[in-house]
Design a protein that fits this description.
Layout: H1 2-6, H2 8-11, H3 30-45, H4 48-54, E1 60-63, E2 69-72, H5 84-106, H6 114-142
Antiparallel strand pairs: 1-2
Length: about 150
C-alpha cells in the first residue's frame, strides 16, 4: 500500500518553500474556541441543515372545532419534521443541559467557598433537571402516548 501512495512522488517534486506565519495570526483562546463549538452545536442540534433544505415555516397553524386558525409550535406525529421554533427551543434545552454539566464540573475546582460551591452545584443540577423534563414534555407533545 505504501508503494501506491509513493508513486506520484517519483514523478513530482515537493517544492522547498520557506513560508512564515504572519505575526497578526494568533491561536484563539480557549473560551473563543468553546464559544464557536457551542454555537455550532446549538445550530446543528437545532436542525439548521434541515431548515435550510426543507424551508419549514417558523410555526404552524391548525383549525379548531369552530373553524378558527390557531398557532401550534410542534409538528405532531412527525419525528423527522419540525418547525423552526421547535428546533431552536429544543436546541436551547440541549445546550442548557450541557451547560448544567459544565457548571457541575466547575463546582469541584479548589478555592471556592462553601456557599459558592453549593450555589454552583444547585444551579447546575437545576439546569440538568429542567432540560431533561422539558425535553420529555416536548416529546410527549410531539408524539402523544409515546412516553406513557
Amino acid at each position: 500500500m505504501e508503494a501506491i501512495y509513493s508513486l506520484p512522488f517519483f514523478v513530482l517534486e515537493v517544492p522547498h518553500l520557506r513560508l512564515k506565519k504572519p505575526a497578526f495570526i494568533k491561536a484563539p483562546s480557549a473560551m473563543v474556541t468553546f464559544g464557536l463549538i457551542l454555537a455550532s452545536y446549538f445550530l446543528v442540534t437545532g436542525g439548521i441543515i434541515y431548515d435550510v433544505i426543507v424551508e419549514p415555516p417558523s410555526i404552524g397553524s391548525t383549525t379548531d372545532e369552530f373553524g378558527h386558525s390557531k398557532p401550534v409550535a410542534f409538528m405532531q406525529y412527525r419525528v423527522n419534521g419540525q418547525y423552526i421554533m421547535e428546533g431552536l427551543v429544543s436546541s436551547f434545552l440541549f445546550v442548557l443541559g450541557g451547560a448544567g454539566f459544565i457548571i457541575l464540573e466547575r463546582s469541584n475546582i479548589s478555592g471556592l467557598t462553601r456557599f459558592n460551591r453549593i450555589m454552583l452545584f444547585s444551579f447546575g443540577f437545576f439546569c440538568i433537571i429542567v432540560s431533561f423534563f422539558a425535553c420529555r414534555v416536548f416529546m410527549s407533545i410531539k408524539l402523544p402516548g409515546y412516553l406513557r
